[in-house]
Amino acid sequence: LVSRENTTKRSVVRVAGVPIGGDHMTVIAGPCAVETPEQTLEAALMARRAGASLLRGGAYKPRTSPYAFQGLGEAGLKILADVRDETGLPIVTEVVDAGDVELVASYADMLQIGTRNMQNFALLQAAGEAGRPVLLKRGMSATIEEWLMAAEYIAQRGNLDIVLCERGIRTFEKATRNTLDISAVPVAQALSHLPVVVDPSHSGGKRDLVLPLSRAAVAVGADGIIVDVHPSPETALCDGPQALTGSDLDELAHLAATLPTLV
Ligand code: PEP
């Protein structure tokens, strides 16, 4: 269903009217985690200023440590919905449990399935039935074929509005959080008709790498980028070191403005 074998056309996925794929390069930006109404609104305004047309933000955070901030749950979804009303930016947010899909879908414009859940098949199937587009991140140790098969689980349930997201893979390299597999973008685009976006924040794990990796995503022909921004990264409850802020945002806005296909 997601293969290019039976179609020459590449898909465009619309998230509350915002296209991902086709001639567009879509910027999705926002805080890694929803923390407070003020922080989320401020991050959303920053995202919009930087050229984003969709707002990201996690209310359910799948953290490596059980002692780390796990997200605000439904209270976070409500904050996101309020910020959408205020800014007009549709929401992309993660769901980590099949049992929560209906609830998250009642607030979200797009469901995100994170790297740790790429092969959570019950979750994929529930997302396939939720009536919302799905952003499917690549498992950090998954092959491209496994990633496409995960997308197939969603598609099989009748939902072809799927966007693939390359977010870095595990390698021996320790200088970055994960290794951005930039070659996965054209490979996945050749094998599948689905749009492919890049997450330069979770792959590099460092603020200084986000702009260079974003440029790499543009150069390789990605259909979009998904970027963490935060009004005060030093106090962020999740992944502050990779969040863009201040003048970095101007650079992202500059990148967005200078590329004719970047919306
Ligand atoms: C995220 O985007 O908030 C996230 C947790 O990403 P990943 O699943 O790629 O680690």
From TrEMBL:
Its EC number is 2.5.1.54. It comes from the Bacteria. GO terms for biological process: aromatic amino acid family biosynthetic process. Keywords: Transferase. GO terms for molecular function: 3-deoxy-7-phosphoheptulonate synthase activity; aldehyde-lyase activity. This is 3-deoxy-7-phosphoheptulonate synthase. The gene is aroF.
